[in-house]
Amino acid sequence: MSAISALAHSLLQHGISKSSTRCSSTALFVPFARVENCKDKDLTSVEAAFEQDTSPLKLNLCGDHYRSPNGKPYLFQAVRKARVAVICDDTLPHEPLPPLGNPEFNRIANELILNKAASAITQQRVLGIQTRSGLDALRLAAHFLRDKMKCNVCLLARPCSEHFEPIFKRAGFTCHSYQYYSEEKVELNIYGLVADLMTAPEGAVIVMDACAQNPTSLSPTIDEWKLIAHIVKCKKMIPVFNLEFHGLASGDTSQDTWPVRYFAEFGLDLLCVQSFVQNFGLYDEALGHLMAVVSNATHLESVKDQLESSLLEHNAQCSSVFASRVVSKVLTNSTLRQDWALTLKDIHQNMRQMRLALSNKLEILRTPGNWAQMKDQQGPHLYTNLKMPQLKELRSRHIYVPNSGSINVGALRPNNVDYVAGAINDVMISTVKADAAAVKTKETNLSAMQCLQHLNAP
Q1: What is the DSSP string of 34-62?
Q2: Strand 187-188 to strand 181-182: parallel, antiparallel, or no bridges (unpaired)?
Q3: Which of 226, 231, 208 shows the shortest CA–CA distance to 265?
Q4: Could you tell me the pTM of the whole model?
Q5: What's the average pLDDT block by block, 10 residues per block, for the chain (458 residues)?
């Protein structure tokens, strides 16, 4: 043993002496120095600026959290009771979940979208998969559609959530956009939407928000949804619905999922991504769900096997046993479910009142722009269509809005809505003055140029 130690010591000394001749004695080997800084994400950088702001007037209008009067994320009482019940239930097993997640949660999540009596459920044409979050469910859907179904073109609304395009591009899709919002008319651009779908490639994947589209908070009417369904069927497209604010758009979970039920009853194969963060207040227990509906029950087993394969390939297995049990407890207990449904309605009404209060105040102040359209929006966001120069000026006034211009309505309160409206009014007036000055300068320069041309003319 001593001989081995001596040999090792000799080799180590020899290596050190050789390396010292090649490297400076002051050189350090710092491998992590080659790691580059990440590019700041828009929302992260805005919220970081808010945290660094020391003004007592600062107001954070970013994010999705519905907040209580003290500024903390709102706690659903039905969810609180369900948490306690699950923790205290000694009969619950401690085994790991199956690959597709909690079976009871998947069943009740499917029924929450389609309802228990839906033909797709009674005919066993529905599959549910528990995921870590709504975005994880969308990633799973993207990989399944690209790897297993060989789809390669994806249609995304313009504008849409900042997360959608990166998810589908990383899965290998070519992403196209379809018109959704008209900045000129500040409303849903249904004519542009229909025109783009009609000219889109056949067999494309189309991603749509079932309610309260992010970021515009606008949704098609029932008749418009029927027209979209007809085009999707004729063009042999595969619809992927996103349900991020289920129950918070209208205050009614059934009304918010009407488009999904209609597409399923219309005989379309579809996928539906669902998040349980906003509508259950599970900000610390992210939970998602992916539902697949097939028009032919004989295809369900193959879809199930391939989705399970995608889960394993991309390490997207479900995680939170506890959160799935909490949601299942709320939705299967009649008292808790009624309490939860009433809370959703209350939150919806409060957000609608704040949306109306801000819109009305801007109209009273005669703020430049069209603000009446905000009354037609739904869900936790309020789309202002403010541009970056205006958002930067708002931040200089200690009001922080994300770069999308979409305000978190859940952060508005009766005691701050006038403050926000006043700041937006000042910013818009400043914008109008700056635009007028720019036009005047341009006209002056043009006039001077014409005078010079006249003087230089022979």
Answers
A1: GPPPPPPPHHHHHHHHHHH---TT-EE--
A2: antiparallel
A3: 226
A4: 0.87
A5: 63 54 58 78 77 91 84 90 96 89 96 95 96 94 96 96 96 97 92 97 97 94 97 98 95 96 97 95 91 96 94 74 96 97 95 94 92 90 91 94 91 92 94 72 65 64
